[in-house]
Amino acid sequence: MCGLNLIYAYHAVAPQPSEGELLRTRDHMRTRGPDDQGTWFSADGRCAFAHRRLAIIDLDHRAAQPMASLCGRYMITFNGEIYNYRELREELLHDGLKLRTESDTEVLLELFVKHGPAAFSRLIGMFALAIRDEREKTVWLARDTYGIKPLYYADDGWTLRAASQVKALIAGGAISSTPEPAGIVGFYLWGAVPEPFTLYQEIRLVPPGHFVKVGALGPEIPAPFLTLESLYQVGEASNLAKATIREAVLDSVRRHLIADVPVGLFLSAGIDSSALLSAIHTLDTERAGATTAVTLSFSEYSNSLYDEAPLAKAIAAQYGAQHLVRKVDENEFHADLPAILEAMDQPSIDGINTWFVSKAANEAGLKVVLSGVGGDELFAGYPSFRQLPRWRAWLTLPARIPGLGLASQALLRGVGSGMGISPKLAGLLRHGGTWAGLYLLRRGLFLPHDLKTLLDPELLARGLHRLSNQGVMSKIQCDMPQNPIARVSFMESAFYMRNQLLRDADWASMAHSLELRTPLVDIELLRKIAPMQHALSNKSMFADAMDLRSEIRDRPKTGFTTPIGRWIGSAVQDNTEHWARSWARRVAGEFRISAGSRGDTPHSHEVGKKGGERGEVAASIPDSSSFTPRRAGAATKDLK
Amino acid sequence: MNILALVTDAFGGFGGIAAYNRHFLRGMAAAGHTVTVLPLDGVGTTPPAIRQFAPKRSKPAYTLAVLSMLITKEHFDLVWCGHMGLVPLARLAAMRYHCPWWLQIHGIDAWDSPGKIKRRAVATAARVTAVSRYTRRRFLAWASLAPEQVRVLPNTVDTRFTPGPKPRELLDRYGLFGKRVLLTVGRISASESYKGHERVIQILPELLLDHPDAVYVIAGDGNGRPALERLAERLGVTAACRFIGRVDETDLVEHYRMADVFIMPSTGEGFGIVYLEAMACGIPAIGLDCDGSADPLQACALGRAVSLENLFAQIEASLAERPYEAASLDNGLDKFAIPVFDDQVRILFGGHDRPADSTGTGA
User: Fold this and answer.
1) B363·A469 Cβ contact <8 A
2) How close does chain A come to B339, measured CA to CA in Å?
3) Where are the domains of chain B?
């Protein structure tokens, strides 16, 4: 887990990359890689790579990056971990290669030398990388199938820039801060900026499971090597089998434990993190005993059902792990808030829990932890797995009646506002006819209609058009598996988890120089579970497969199990609206998101520039007494 | 490849767009393609492999000419559209020939979202080339195309623009002996006031305090000229201004050479070929950093792209500099030379002799 960046002046008229810009971007990511750093310039001076390293595998300086291939033709800068690198290494050694390091980076690079971009589909792990081919004068960018690791790139028509963080790219000082309406509208719709957009028109994410080749003309259209959609397209469904689930999870955890430093664990009292500790114990009892499990505890919840510490302590004791309970109170939250907002790479209404638990892990001296994120998405843990198929069955026909959706929305909004009818309920018939609409109702922070009073109409229209036209909403509509459970699993994985949970996990953990690994977000695991998903109804099968004690399996969902929602409410000092909405307003102000319209007048439309009008969005947010809060997940889901 | 080019003007045309189109069409021919040009305006000599039809002068006549072309048996492999205004016709032609079409965008015409018909037509373009990074960014803010479909092909500058001594005949004609000359070359259109003539005139009173020998020469004509003349009179700087009218293409080089500083604080340039021409003549060039001007000005040693707030300071600094010996310096202009431009055209066509068919309906 590291930070990477590059500048490639591919166009003939582009000036050569400046070392100053390269270092400004790299060193903005200091906490991503405190152990080592490096830069490299191509022979013609047109391409520059940089890297900051968090050393996890092969701690020696010989494994530092940017790293050259054995033949000297290729150069790599890479962020992530390749969990099957040992098998791939054996293959390369069998070919007679004399590898110089024990690192996964060198294996990855030599695999590319051997297979070209076809190598990417053989990698199991989380990765974002750039490889330079000095002979062909090309650069290849690639990102893992789930999109665990971020890789942002900006092409201005002359020069391509890429980095692990948006704020690092902006810190370089050479990228336009023209806002992206789709990013702004997407943030208000979902509480996180949906891929491939960012707040900035020029900066985009490399799509997960895709690579981008950059040649003399600039970046080509991203090409897939292994997409999440394709993994959900299973041939033949199979029956639920506890043994298969158990073996698949054990396999994934085994892979995720590979490291040359101790690997810790985020432990709540929930099924997912408990299952991971159970798996570690099954694989290696001694290792479980050496594992530090970190749990957050809040004084507000002492001796209440919501306090996870007692059960977590019992779970840790059961598997012999070393247990660390870290108390967090409101004072610490407020003290950390400026640093949290500074570390937040793109606006998000989530991620605070991951910040504190990562901070605790860092204090405990850990560089790597396992997180249970992804369990709900894979094993049907969310209520959405039950709700959406049911709503779909109820609403498909009425939603097809022309005008009924609009009429019912207008009626319910008119008469319902005084009766406490939520905007989401009012929009049920209008949006409920499609999976995309249903998902918006389920996960949306605001509905498009709500945004009419929040954002400039032209910005809103442009944002919605770009979201719809450039693959965000259409992806929900088109690329889904047929089985309803698998559909919801795909939507939650490709949207909520990818855009919110994984992005928040990245910035909040990397701010504490901590590598967060996700054994339940793993392509091999998905390959084995996807054929069984049709038969899942909740996570009890998963809990049973991992032999979890009944208190964990039967523990009721406690909803807002942390007081962070309340603290956030107090931080924004407005008790008249739901905390998520208030928090969105605060975050928008912090990112200086302009609610202005055109975005095309010179100097009038830049996001976050000095002198910009901070908080102008906040001033236009309407009263939200009728707001229906998102499910509890926002503040709690990231602690797994 | 047999290419049909729909253009406002090219061979025989006047101004930056015509010059750009000529270079691009020549580049296509140099890459081995056959080009048929349907111009709205302009009559001129074409090189081999390029056939240019007679101009139609009016939009209805032009539309009729394109439609007439479409009903002939001639087939084209690519339709090249040289202006946003011709997008619907280009789209129609591409549908007729079942071939991809390529849009060239120059500047302000492509900055803001057009009407629905053009917007939908643009979404079907296989490729777009923009003259500058700024124009590309503005275009991508509204166009329903992937960023990777929109490439930048900057303007080029003719080899006849070279440094030389100040022409005595022109200094005499305009009364410029012993003067420090600020020069702007461009249309003076009341509807295109973005060129920034008035910004220069407004700072003349203060500039003349330190540089009483400064004279502002305005080359170009148009319906905005009377307003500029009145402004100069109101500010009491008429004596320091020379409105010399439109300069013929063949006399441009000499006019650049008589200047000490080229200044055009425009806010609406797609690129601004005049900056390149001035710098190729060894004249330092000043513009603003808020539009396409930044591309030529930031890429060349002689260029200065500044904010509006710093404009006055930059003009003062440039006037204070010693006369520039451009010919002896590596000033970065070689990047805008015609061979580089031709090479870029070849690369754009390389591997894309038949750009991916995109004759669908678009958004």
Assistant:
1) yes
2) 11
3) 2-156+339-349, 168-333
On whether any CB of chain B is under 8 Å from the CB of A609, the answer is no
**Residues of B numbered 59-118 whose beta carbons fall under 8 angstroms of chain A's beta carbons: which are they?**
111-112
> In this structure, are residues A504 and A350 in contact, taking their beta carbons and an 8 Å threshold?
yes
Residues of chain A numbered 216-245 and touching chain B (CB < 8 Å): 216-221
Find the DSSP H helices in A285-351: 285-290, 309-319, 330-343
Nearest-by-Cβ selection for B151 from A157, A201, A462? A157
From CA A464, how far away is CA A454, in angstroms rounded?
14
Of the residues A485, A515, A534, the one at which a domain ends: A485
Give Cα B134 distance to the centre of its chain: 13
Single residue among A226, A255, A270 that ends a domain in this structure: A226
Question: Mind listing the pLDDT tens digit of every residue in chain B (363 residues)?
Answer: 999 999 999 999 887 899 899 999 999 999 899 999 999 998 888 988 899 999 988 999 999 999 999 999 899 999 999 999 999 999 999 999 999 999 999 988 999 999 999 999 999 999 999 999 999 999 999 999 999 999 999 999 988 999 999 999 999 999 999 999 999 999 898 877 788 999 999 999 999 999 999 999 999 999 999 999 999 999 999 999 999 999 988 899 999 999 999 999 999 889 999 999 999 999 999 999 989 999 999 887 789 999 999 999 999 888 887 555 544 445 778 889 999 999 999 999 884 433 444 333 333
Distance CA A90, CA A616 (A): 57
The residues that bridge with B182 in the sheet, in sequence order, are B216, B261
| DSSP letter assigned to residue A615 | T
Give domain status of residue A294, yes or no.
yes
Q: First CA to last CA across chain B, in angstroms?
A: 28
Fold of B2-156+339-349: Rossmann fold (3.40.50)
**Predicted model pTM:** 0.90
Please give the single-letter amino acid code of residue B192.
E
Sign of CA dihedral A222, A228, A233, A236: positive
Q: Which of A157, A466, A600 sits opposite B152 (nearest CB)?
A: A157
Closest to B99 in 3D by CA, of B163, B14, B33, B159: B33
Given its phi and psi angles, is residue A29 left (phi above 0), alpha (psi -120 to 50 degrees) or beta?
A: alpha
Whether A449 is covered by a domain: the verdict is: yes
Helices A564-572, A579-590: crossing angle, 10 deg rounding: 60
> Half-sphere exposure (CA, 13 Å, Cβ side) for A513?
17
- What does the alpha-carbon distance between residue A211 and residue A198 come to, in Å, rounded to a whole number? 19
Q: Show the domain range for A592.
A: 564-636
Neighbours of B248 (CB within 10 A): 8
Q: Which of A584, A550, A546 has its CA nearest to residue A568?
A: A584
Two structure tokens written together for A155: 């092409």
What is the topology classification, in CATH, of domain B168-333?
A: Rossmann fold (3.40.50)
| DSSP states of A247-296 | HHHHHHHHHHT--SS-EEEE--SSHHHHHHHHHHHHH-HHHHHH-EEEEE
CATH classification at residue A240 = 3.40.50.620
Q: Is A520 helix (H, G, I), strand (E, B) or coil?
A: coil
Q: Does B140 touch chain A if contact means CB atoms closer than 8 Å?
A: yes
- Which residue is closest to A216 within chain B, CA to CA? B347
Token pair 């003290």 is found at A335
DSSP state of B79: E
SS3 A43: coil
Question: What total number of domains does chain A contain?
Answer: 4
Q: Shortest CA distance to A524 belongs to which of A259, A247, A288?
A: A247
Dig out the tokens for B33 from the structure: 């393609």
Amino acid (one-letter) located at A550: S
Q: What Å distances lie between residue B360 and B79, B83, B84, B149, B216, CA to CA?
A: 15, 21, 19, 15, 52
Helix (H) or strand (E) holding B93: helix B87-97
Report how far residue B131's alpha carbon sits from residue B275's, in angstroms, rounded to the nearest whole number. Answer: 14
